[in-house]
Automatic annotation (TrEMBL):
Coiled coil: none annotated. The keyword Metal-binding applies. GO terms for molecular function: dioxygenase activity. This is Taurine dioxygenase. Pfam families: TauD. Keywords: Dioxygenase, Iron, Metal-binding, Oxidoreductase.
Amino acid sequence: MTSTLHASHVDLSLTPLGPNFGAEVNGLDLATATDAEVAAVRAALVDHKVLFFRDQTLDDDGQVALGRRIGELTASHPVVGGVDEAHPEIYALDSADNGFADVWHTDVTFMPRPPLGSILRAVVLPATGGDTNWADSQLAYDSLSAPVRELADKLTAVHDGNREFGYYLAQRRGGKGSVWEGEVVTRLDPVEHPVVRVHPETGRKGIFVNPGFTSHIVGVSDAESRGILDLLYAHLTKPEHIVRHRWRAGDVAMWDNRSTAHYANRDYGTQHRVMHRITLRGDIPAGPLSL
């Protein structure tokens, strides 16, 4: 069953992937899309949170050009350099170089201004396996019980990139990372974000902690922090909050980093998997108490 979304005078043909979020965009060539079509995609991204495009012909140049039409691009990653000198915006996730994402996370939440969204392109795929899962953080928040929502609304969490990228920054990059928000990243200072993020475009609330980068809750004991985070992680990743994408050659995925978390299955053994990702510059997360 397909549906359409009207934005900027363009109707996109969408196939919903679940009752609440995720959609496949049918028949749109991202390499030749008009400005109106790109605007419709941008609107659909906020509404559906994760979009999939089959049979695309984008290369690295095309992926960067598409990203620039949607928003302002960041460097590939605060710590990891671009895929090559010509494409400093592209982050290569290469399984041959420990490029895995098999922990639930939201991209780059360990920086004060995490990316708005990400665009991921399949470059090399294993014969089987390597699916990616997305969780809807807003649906997860809405389905919490009222007392737990009220508690989460008041909490702040610390996000720390050192656990995942501190060694890489020090050993692989010699203590000098990418230029992020106008400054060269030389260390990964932990940052604080609200546990519940208010989406700046829709006003909806979503769970904004993740096992990949969140270290602890501020102002509570270690035991309380672990208990609260474990509860939120388990709830966020319930099956009814998730859509799963089985990759094919030519696939492109696009997601809203402000309302989702994701996880890439590492179930393909020694087969090779390479994905190229770009990210769109975002804003400083705001919680319910800061508005």
